[in-house]
Amino acid sequence: MPTTENTAARNAGNAGNAGKTANVANATKAPGVRVDGLTVVYRTPAGELPAVRGIDLELPAGTITGVVGESGSGKSTLALSLLNAVQPPGRISAGSVEIDGLGDVVKLSGEDLRKARGRHIGYVFQAAQNSLNPLKTVGKQLLDLGRSHEIEDLRGLVRDAKDLLGRMGLDGARVLDSHQHELSGGMRQRVGIMLALVLNAHLVVLDEPTTALDMITQANILRIVREVHAERGLTTLVITHDLGVVAEVADRLAVMYGGRLVEQGPTRDVLSAPRHPYTQGLLRAIPRLLGDIGEARALPGRPPTLGTVPARGCVFRERCALRMDVCETEEPPIVVRGPSITACHAVAAADAGTDTGADTTAGTATAGADAVPDAAHPAETADEPESAGAVGAAGAGEPAGVQGTRGEQP
Amino acid sequence: MITGQNITKTFRQRGGVLAGRDVRALRGVDFTIPKGGAVSFIGESGCGKTTLGRIIAGLETYDSGEITIDGTPMSSLRPRKRQPYFRRIQMIHQDPYSALNPTRTIHQTLDAPLSLRAGQTGRPRSWVDERAEELLALVGLDPGYVLPRYPHQLSGGMRQRVVIARALTVDPEMLVADEAVSMIDVSLRLGILALLKDLRERLGVSVLFITHDVATARYIGDDGELYVIYRGQVVERGHVDTIISAPVHPYTQSLLSAIPVLHGLERPGEQPVVPTEALDESHHDAGCLFARRCPFRTDRCESEPPVLGRDEEFPQEHACFHPRRRDVVATPIGRG
Asked: How many Å separate Cα A319 from the centre of its chain?
C-alpha cells in the first residue's frame, strides 16, 4: 500500500534526525500493550483519591479491545494513562504501561513523550468537534501537526491525509479546505481518526468515538474503525459507556467499575455468559428492541464517584445482590476461567464449590442473576439517596462515616 | 388530547455563511396525542423531532397548520390566552445539568412554582412544603436529603428526577421528554424510563418521548405509538412493537439496522438496510425525500412524493411506494 510506504519512509528519514527517538521509530506494526498494576490518583481536599486502581490489562497486538464503564468508572483516565497524559491534579502513582517498541510510557517525559504521542500513539478525543481549532482549516491543522513532529515531506503528509479521508468516504481535498463548523459531527469524527492515524501510529485510542452521533452515522464510524484497524494493522483501544459499541467492534471486552477492572474476556463470551454481578446487571439494564420488556431492570443504587468509592473491599458491593461479609473487607480475588477474568468473591465461591462441573457453576451464576431483580425492585425508589450521602464527601469534606451509615441497607 | 394538523416550520438563515439557505424543519406533520397516552418521535438529529416537541410545548412558533388542545384550536386564541393551555405541557430536557439553576437549592427550585400555584388556587402556605415533599417522593427521591441541596450535590439521575418533579408542580397533562435519558448513566436509565411510565399509569399524564434510541421508546408503555420522522416528515407511524418488529419503510429499516448488535446475546437481522448515501439536507427532492439514499428506489420515487397512509397489507401507516417487511432487527438468542 503506497500510503504506508510513504509514511514509513518519512519516519525512517526522520528517525535519523532525532537520534533520541530512534528506537521508538522501529515500531512500524501493531504493538502489544501491557498495563501492569496501574494506579492513578487525583488530589482532592480529602486527600489523594484513586480514580484507577491496580489495573492489569493486556492489549494483544493487532486486536481491538473495548473498555466499558459508566461515568466515574475511570475509563477515560485509563485511556489517558496510555499516553502518560493524565493532567494535574491527577498523577500516575503506581504501575507501568509497556508498549512494544516504546518501553514504559510512564517513564517517558519531555520531548520523548511528545514525539511518542501522535507518532506512535494516535488518540481520537471524545467530541472531536471540541478538539479541532475553530479558527483554522483542517488542512492547516494537519500541517501544524506535521511540523511539530518534524515531518519534512509535508506534501506526502497531505497526500496520506487525503487518502485516509477518501478511504473513509470523504472528499479529502474539500475536507482539508474546511473549517470545523462546515463539517457534520460524523465528518469531524472521521477527521479526528485521520489526524490520529496520519503520522502512522499503530496504537490508536478512541475515547467515546460515537457519543452524540446518530445511529446511522455511528454504524458508519464503527464500520470505518473496523476496516481501518484491519487494513493498517493496528492495536486499537475503544473507550465507551455503550456496550453496543464494544459488541460491534471489539475482540476483547473489559468492564470497569469504580476505578477497577471487574471482568474481562473475549467479547462474545462476556456478553453471552457474564460472570460479574455488575456486568450481569448492566446487560439487564440495557433497553432492548425485542423480547420481554419486563425482564429489563435498572441497577439499584448509582455508580460511585471519586469520593464515594470504598477504599477497602469490593467497589460494587453497595449495589450487589450477591454481597457477602467478605466483600466489605477483602479485595475480590481474580478468578480465571479460560480466556476470561473476573474479580468477584461470589464468583470465586461458586467456582470453589464446584471444582470441575462447569454446568453447576453456570447454574449458580444464573441463580445469582435471577436474584438481581428481586433486590432491585424494592430499592428502586430509594436507590439514589441511598449512597448519596457521600456526594459531597470529596468537595464539601463530609465525614466519611456519614456515607457509611447512609449506605448501610440490608 | 392534543392534535396537530399539517404543521410546518421553516428556519430562515439570515446572517453568516449560511444566509439564504432555508431549513425546512417540518413539512406538514399531523399528530394525535391522546389523554394519558404515550407517543414517541424517533429519527436522526436534524429530522425535526425536537422542533416538533418544542412546538407542542408552546416553546416554538409554527408557520402554518393548527394545534388543537382539548378541542380548542390555538389559532382562535390570542397568545396570552394560549398560555394556560401550554402551561400544562411541560418539557424535560436532555441535560439535567443545565436545566436547574445552580445557585438555588432544590427547595427554592420547587418553592417558586408551587407558591405561584398556591396563590392562584388559594391554598395555604403550608401546602407548598407538603407538596414539594410529596412530589419528590413521587419521583423516587428522599425529600429530607434532596431539599436542602444544590444541583451540583446531586447525581445526573437525581437531577433528572428533580427536573421531572419540577415539571409536575403545575399538574401537567403532558410531559415532553426530549432525549431525557441520553445523558444518564446506562445502569440508571431504566429507572427514569420506569418513572415516566409510572407517572402515566398513576397520574394519567401523557408522555411525548423524543429520542434517537428506538429501544428506549418501548419502555414508556406497551400501548405506545411510534412516529418515525425523516427530514420534517412522518414516514412511518404505528404501534411501537409493530414498527420495531416489522418495519416497512426503508428509512425505518435503516435506523433499526444501525443499532449495534450484542453479539453473543443477539443474532443480527438477516436483511439489514444501509442507506446508499449520507444525509444531505440541502438536497431538494421532487419525490420521496429518502429516495436518494434508498437502496430500493424506483423512477416513481424520484418524481412523485409519497403520502403517509394506511393500506390493507400492513397495520401501520407508511409513506412509501414499495413497502416491504424486512428482517432488520437483531433477535435475542434463546438461553440454553
From this structure: 22
Task: Out of B191, B245, B332, name the one closest to residue A383 (CB).
Answer: B191
The x, y and z cell numbers of residue B134, run together, are 410529596
Nearest C-alpha of chain B: how many angstroms from A115?
A: 36
Q: Residue A271 domain-assigned?
A: no
Q: What is the DSSP letter of B334?
A: P
φ and ψ of B130, to 5 deg: -60, -45
Confidence of residue A169 (pLDDT cuts 50, 70, 90): confident
Distances (CA, A) of A127 to A186, A189, A193, A246: 10, 8, 12, 18
Counting one residue from chain A and one from chain B, the pairs whose CB atoms sit within 8 A come to: 162
Note the pLDDT of residue A12. 39
**Min Cα–Cα distance to chain B from A14, Å:** 39
The answer to whether position A262 is within a domain reads no
B216/A288 Cβ within 8 A: no
Calculate ∠ Cα A176-A180-A181, nearest 5°: 130
Q: What residues contact B38, with CB distance under 8 A and at least 6 apart? A: B197, B200, B206, B207, B209, B220, B221, B223, B224, B225
Does residue A177 belong to the interface with chain B, where contact is any CB pair within 8 Å? no
Condensed to tens digits (0 to 9), the pLDDT of residues A84-99 reads 989 888 999 999 999 9
Q: How far is A91 from chain B (nearest CA, A)?
A: 25
Global pTM value: 0.83
Output the pLDDT for position A146.
Answer: 92
Q: How far is A197 from chain B (nearest CA, A)?
A: 23
Is pLDDT at B24 greater than 70 in this prediction? yes
- Contacts of residue B232, defined as CB under 8 A and 6 or more positions apart, other chains included, come to B9, B24, B25, B26, B27, B29, B47, B48
Q: Where are the beta strands (DSSP E) in B232-285?
A: 233-239, 266-267
Q: For B254-273, how does the pLDDT look when each residue is reduced to its tens digit (9 = 90+)?
A: 999 999 999 888 999 999 99
Asked if A247 and A328 sit in the same domain, the reply is no
A145 touches B: beta carbon within 8 Å = no
* Residue in A with minimal Cα distance to B158: A384
The 8-class DSSP code of residue A290 comes to S
CATH code for the domain in which residue A179 is found: 3.40.50.300
Whether A111 contacts A20, CB under 8 Å: yes
Q: Indicate the residue of B154, B155, B258 with minimum beta-carbon distance to A218.
A: B258
- Domain residues for A313? 276-287+296-407
Chain B contact present for A405, CB below 8 A: no
